[in-house]
Write a structure and sequence with these properties.
The protein is α+β, with helices and mostly antiparallel strands. A hairpin with a 5-residue loop joins strand 5 and strand 6. The chain folds into two domains: 125 residues, Alpha-Beta Complex (Penicillin-binding protein 2a (Domain 2)); 357 residues, 3-Layer(aba) Sandwich (Beta-lactamase), CATH 3.40.710. The radius of gyration is 38 Å and the shape is elongated. It is 38% helix and 18% strand. The strands form seven sheets. Strands 1, 2, 3, 4 and 7 form a five-stranded mixed sheet that branches. It is found in: Membrane. One of its GO terms (molecular function) is penicillin binding. InterPro entries: Beta-lactam/transpept (IPR050515), Beta-lactam/transpept-like (IPR012338), PBP_dimer (IPR005311), PBP_dimer_sf (IPR036138), PCN-bd_Tpept (IPR001460).
Length: 573
């Protein structure tokens, strides 16, 4: 009987299972719920993380670009004697991730006293941006770094980077140029040689910072003395085409590029285009002698003004007698120069201007190079005015290069800002014969050494300077000339008996002074600066003073030019 009951109980349990224990069921359900929730959260986290990565990839990439330090440090820029002009310094950059800033106002208030470039308001604006990266400051000192670190503001970070610095400050600002925050070149040598510098290669310039400083100081002195608005200077090695010094004033400190005015950033030496006035008479004389249109003894009737269409060509100091070619340059006769140009004509003049590089941009290693402005219609009027530097606008470097060709050995060498290496092939193009160049520089010597020469104030005793003055009214933006705004220029070759260097000094809008008797011409403004420069740089360049009256020096110059009623002796006057 008991066995029968057990069987029936087992059967009932199989058909109708016993009611589960409520407490045990709740535990099992909770475990299952937690497991399911965990799986769901994990799945959504993975999906969310992936979405975040995809949506924020651009922001993180930009952030990485700001913070990265290239494994190749940007190359240095060095002068011809190995002195640093541009290099890199390690710095600490302070930046923030606005998304991590918990209290923008609190963070801005705490940071403002330690960040000079921002106040609380500007910091709040930065820290509220919808981005992952904002730069707050760079060039942090160790002390400021420590103070900011102690604030413990979430979302504020530090990164090691480098800063491009220019140890010589203003000395060669327009040549060196500038880089952007990512160290990409944006101006000057930094831009033109960006690929080499970015690859870690140093750039050796033809510049000598010692010579550069001297020329900058002397031009600055003339600008101050004559209340001018600016100036420029170029020193060129005639045998190699290397530019040893080049300055433009006003200039700026490239370490504080953002503070520089537009005028200070403008490179008057290569970007500025000017009518160079009577300095062109050097080139006009060279063309006349080379083409056979005249000899040094050929005379021209200059006593009366020359009518050209509705214009009249006059001389500043009219002559009462015919002048020969040498006298035309010594007295700076516009009429004589125009008559010489009329002898060889427009097509010849234009061809020589082209061969001298005066119609094209110079192949110089700077982005800031201007293309000269030349006559659209090169007819008689243009030919006559170009002969004395009007109607054609060039840069001071153009002038230095052209005069170097005409007064050294007649060979044109494209100017360069890069130091020549031993064995480098220098491309030279014959423009004038050596005989023509010999005659031209001998006449240039008379401009400085003769008592009637317009460039007497450039004479540096013993250093045999030859040159030419130039004074031209500035062209107005709306056409015509501004009679109250002059350019005073002097171009010099030295030493003329063994030509090695050409100097161009230009002063922009000088005003006549008491000591200059009210004059603001090239002879009064630019020539004295050339004399002082030659006296200072000659020992550096290894140019030694000579006895101007020694036979060995006299034999190297043409001495058969007649100036006035006397035969010029070129040695001393």
């Amino acid at each position: 009987m008991m066995r029968g009951r057990g069987f029936l109980s087992n059967l009932r349990n199989l058909v109708l299972p016993p009611r589960p224990d409520p407490a045990a069921s709740r535990v099992i359900a909770e475990i299952r719920l937690v497991l399911c929730a965990s799986v769901a959260i994990l799945a959504f986290s993975v999906i969310g993380f992936r979405i975040f990565n995809l949506s924020d990839a651009g922001a993180r990439e930009r952030m990485a670009n700001h913070l990265k330090t290239s494994h190749v440090e940007r190359g240095q820029i060095i002068d011809r004697k190995g002195r640093l002009l541009a290099t890199n310094l390690p710095i600490t950059v302070l930046h923030a991730d606005p998304r991590e800033i918990m209290d923008v106002t609190d963070a801005a208030t705490k940071l403002a006293p330690l960040i000079g470039r921002h106040d609380v308001a500007s910091l709040k604006t930065l820290l509220s941006k919808k981005t992952r990266y904002v730069e707050l400051d760079r060039k942090l000192t160790p002390a400021r770094h420590a103070e900011i670190l102690q604030l413990g503001i979430p979302g504020v970070y530090f990164a090691e980077s480098t800063l491009r610095v220019y140890p010589r400050a203003e000395t060669a600002a327009h040549i060196l140029g500038q880089v952007d925050p990512e160290h990409n070149g944006i101006a000057g040598i930094e831009k033109s040689q960006d690929a080499h510098l970015a690859a870690g290669k140093d750039i050796h310039l033809s510049l000598d910072v010692g010579l550069q400083a001297i020329i900058r100081a002397e031009i600055s002195k003339q600008i101050n003395e004559f209340e001018a608005i600016g100036g420029a200077g170029v020193l060129l090695d005639t045998r190699t085409g290397e530019i040893l010094a080049m300055t433009s004033l006003p200039d700026y400190n490239p370490n504080h590029f953002a503070k520089a005015s537009d005028d200070a950033r403008f490179n008057r030496a290569t970007k500025g285009l000017y009518e160079m006035g009577s300095t062109f008479k050097v080139l006009n004389t060279a063309i006349a002698l080379e083409t056979g249109a005249a000899t040094p003894r050929t005379e021209f009737e200059v006593m009366k003004p020359l009518r050209v269409s509705r214009f009249t060509i006059n001389d500043y100091h009219p002559s009462k007698k015919p002048l020969n070619v040498a006298e035309i340059m010594v007295h700076s006769s516009n009429i004589g120069s125009a008559l010489m140009a009329e002898e060889f004509g427009a097509s010849i003049q234009k061809e020589y201007m082209k061969r001298l590089g005066l119609l094209d941009r110079l192949p110089l290693e700077l982005p800031e190079i201007a293309k000269p402005l030349s006559p659209k219609h090169w007819k008689r009027a243009a030919t006559l005015t170009v002969s004395y530097g009007h109607g054609i606008s060039i840069s001071p470097v153009h002038l230095a290069s052209a005069v170097s060709t005409a007064s050294s050995n007649g060979l044109r060498i494209a100017p360069t800002l890069l130091k020549r290496k031993t064995g480098d092939e220098i491309i030279k193009t014959r423009v004038f014969s050596e005989h023509t160049a010999h005659a031209v520089r001998s006449i240039m010597r008379l401009v400085v050494s003769h008592k009637e020469g317009t460039g007497k104030k450039a004479r540096a005793t013993g250093y045999m300077v030859g040159g030419k003055t130039g004074t031209a009214e500035k062209v107005q933006a709306n056409g015509g000339y501004n009679a109250k705004a002059n350019l005073a220029t002097f171009v010099a070759t030295f030493p003329v008996h063994d030509p090695r260097y050409v100097i161009v000094i230009m002063v922009d809008e000088p005003k006549g002074q008491k000591q200059s008797h009210g004059f603001a011409t090239g002879g009064w403004v630019a020539a004295p600066a050339v004399r002082r420069i030659v006296e200072q740089i000659s020992p550096i360049l290894g140019v030694h003073p000579v006895d101007e009256e020694s036979p060995s020096i006299r034999q190297k110059l043409m001495l058969d030019f007649n100036i006035g009623n006397q035969e010029a002796t070129l040695a001393s006057f």
